[in-house]
């Protein structure tokens, strides 16, 4: 039987504990502190760290109960070592170290971003090699060439300013919608016309494509929405929130999907993985499926529940790392708030 891997995630506002064997998901327990941050319009790091501390043991217990295992059954512990909020990461890394030491099993500090991609293995089995990946989270937006998800991930392009999720969150605030903005915009957009307003598509002009073919920019879009809303208010008209939300969402999804498919074509990648919180967006999933089908690219998308932060994705990546026989992280493992996506596994 394949090893039982426990995954711990605490990089932002979700305390996640997952249990995975190979590519089989056994448990995915998540406790979120999102409601504690909502009134501030964004995550408050100290509040998140304290919430992780309080949620860690109950979430761990729940994961074991759900999977019908005990901690003594665990063969390896994987934990998000970055990127993320420094204090929040420390809670997870501290808990993982204590567990690994007490259970006498190896400890693997892994990259949160690569875990968002590796989670695709839990739906549809082992990932083909190589493949492309579009990573769209609250803090990152990147196009990746995944030679091997456990050991060789290469950055093809990334955002030069705001991340896609950040653009959703900032635009939601502008429209008076609640935090987190992604789900709120997507709900508002359902009643809107995506063609109502022609918002800009960042870094898609012929000149930009020369230097930034696989890069993204969303800050111009955010400014364009702000200007449009202000002009509307100045003229005394009510802001058509649904149309603005739908047109904004369409602009983001259009650029993301176009560049992702282009990257697959340019690098001969036959499969594209989608990962990160924004991959929960229905329009993104729909448009990406359409454009991948047209281009003959197979698309792997995680089930909705596994799109936003969770421990199962960390366990899924940990299981891949264990399967390759890679060396565990040392006892000096810490959190690295700006861990680069190419560092899948932290050695120290
Ligand atoms: O990956 P994630 O859960 O946390 C980070 O690692 O950052 O991503 C969170 C981001 C937030 O910006 C949130 O607004 C966005 O994912 N998000 C969405 C949707 N659900 C979450 N964006 C668009 N549409 C959604 N349905
Ligand atoms: Zn994330």
Automatic annotation (TrEMBL):
Fe cation binds at residues 112, 116, 309. Required for the formation of a threonylcarbamoyl group on adenosine at position 37 (t(6)A37) in tRNAs that read codons beginning with adenine. Is involved in the transfer of the threonylcarbamoyl moiety of threonylcarbamoyl-AMP (TC-AMP) to the N6 group of A37, together with TsaE and TsaB. TsaD likely plays a direct catalytic role in this reaction. Its main location: cytoplasm. It holds the Pfam family TsaD. Residues 25-315 form the Gcp-like domain. It is an enzyme of class 2 (transferase). This is tRNA N6-adenosine threonylcarbamoyltransferase. Keywords: Acyltransferase, Cytoplasm, Iron, Metal-binding, Transferase, tRNA processing. It catalyses: L-threonylcarbamoyladenylate + adenosine(37) in tRNA = N(6)-L-threonylcarbamoyladenosine(37) in tRNA + AMP + H(+). GO terms for biological process: tRNA threonylcarbamoyladenosine modification. Its cofactor is Fe(2+). Its EC number is 2.3.1.234. One of its GO terms (molecular function) is tRNA N(6)-L-threonylcarbamoyladenine synthase activity. The gene is tsaD. Belongs to the KAE1 / TsaD family. GO terms for cellular component: cytoplasm. Binds 1 Fe(2+) ion per subunit. Substrate binds at residues 135-139, 169, 182, 281. InterPro entries: ATPase_NBD, Gcp-like_dom, KAE1/TsaD, Peptidase_M22_CS, TsaD. It is found in: Cytoplasm.
């Amino acid at each position: 039987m394949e090893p039982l891997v426990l995954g711990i995630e605490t990089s932002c506002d979700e305390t996640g504990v997952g249990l995975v064997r190979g590519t089989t998901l056994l448990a995915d327990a998540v406790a979120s502190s999102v409601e504690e941050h909502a009134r501030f319009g964004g995550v408050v790091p100290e509040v998140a760290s304290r919430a992780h501390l309080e949620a860690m043991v109950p979430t761990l217990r729940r994961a074991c109960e759900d999977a019908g295992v005990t901690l003594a059954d665990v063969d390896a512990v994987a934990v998000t070592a970055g990127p993320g909020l420094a204090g929040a990461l420390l809670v997870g890394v501290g808990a993982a170290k204590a567990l690994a030491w007490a259970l006498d099993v190896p400890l693997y500090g892994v990259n949160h971003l690569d875990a968002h991609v590796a989670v695709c293995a839990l739906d549809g089995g082992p990932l083909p090699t190589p493949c492309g990946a579009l990573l769209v989270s609250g803090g990152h937006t990147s196009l990746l060439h995944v030679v091997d998800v456990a050991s060789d991930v290469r950055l093809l392009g990334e955002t030069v300013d705001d991340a896609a999720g950040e653009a959703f969150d900032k635009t939601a605030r502008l429209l008076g919608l609640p935090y987190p903005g992604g789900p709120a915009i997507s709900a508002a957009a359902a009643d809107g016309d995506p063609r109502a307003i022609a918002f800009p598509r960042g870094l898609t002009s012929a000149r930009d494509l020369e230097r930034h073919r696989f890069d993204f920019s969303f800050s111009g879009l955010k400014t364009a929405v702000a200007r449009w809303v202000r002009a509307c208010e100045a003229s005394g008209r009510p802001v058509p929130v649904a149309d603005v939300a739908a047109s904004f969402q369409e602009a983001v999804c259009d650029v993301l999907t176009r560049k992702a498919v282009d990257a697959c074509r340019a690098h001969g990648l036959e499969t594209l993985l989608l990962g990160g919180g924004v991959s929960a967006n229905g329009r993104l999933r729909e448009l990406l499926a359409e454009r991948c089908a047209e281009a003959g690219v197979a698309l792997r998308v995680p089930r909705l529940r596994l799109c936003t932060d969770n421990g199962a994705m960390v366990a899924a990546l940990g299981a891949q790392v264990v399967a390759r026989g890679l060396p565990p992280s040392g006892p000096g493992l810490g959190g690295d708030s700006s861990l680069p996506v190419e560092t899948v596994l932290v050695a120290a």
